[in-house]
Amino acid sequence: MDCAELVTRLNERLDVDAYAAMDASTNGLQVGPQSGSIEHVAVAVDAAVATIDEAISLDADLLCVHHGLFWGGLDRLTGRAYDRIRPLIEHEIRCYAAHEPLDGHQELGNAAGISDLLGCTDRSPFGSVGSEWIGQQGTLPEPLEPDELCNVLESLDSERIQTLDFGPETIEQVAIVTGSGTDWIDEAIDADVDALITGEGKQKAYHQAREAGLTVVLAGHYATETFGVRSLQSLFDRWGLETSYISHPTGL
After folding, report:
1. Which of 179, 209, 177, 178 lies closest to 194 in space, CA to CA?
2. Can you name the residues that pair with 121 across neighbouring β-strands?
């Protein structure tokens, strides 16, 4: 597939332009020309030396990631930034990143993937960022105790699931913001859900959850954000491209 066509399709499918004003990440094609052909796409959560090296070994033409290389501009290309980008250029591998657009997409996104895993119904967007969303909320198919909910989430590529168990004895209504999502505790309270599922927490989240009577499940930043790139891999498969998934868990 022509690279320019692939980039245009992705930008439109993920509505990248809608997040431009509020996402510090430079979403879209970050490295490489739009000219040329793409036959093999590797997907990964992070654009890091380890994942870039594996993309090289796979002879990929494009590395598609959730966490890209540029956050709020690039001051200089030295040090670790140079070490990451140089191999991409030398091996003519393009890099495409989708951060908040891939968090919030209601079908392909990270939160949508966890909703699929849990079998949630009555879904709606959650986690407002400006005029857009980075999460999803819904109803579990049957009420679960917090331990039972964690058992379902154990299929995630996570070394440890932590629970701030301050909510009701059984959970039915959940809100999901993957990665670092405890900043949306107040929104979860306003939405009257029983639990917020996210990746990692902050110190203040403990007291916020306790005082509000809300259960917060911390299932790992990396683990909760594998769904989006996996969904994109399936999309690329349908578009007739060769694909590879690069797994490099951080345990965080």
Report:
1. 209
2. 139
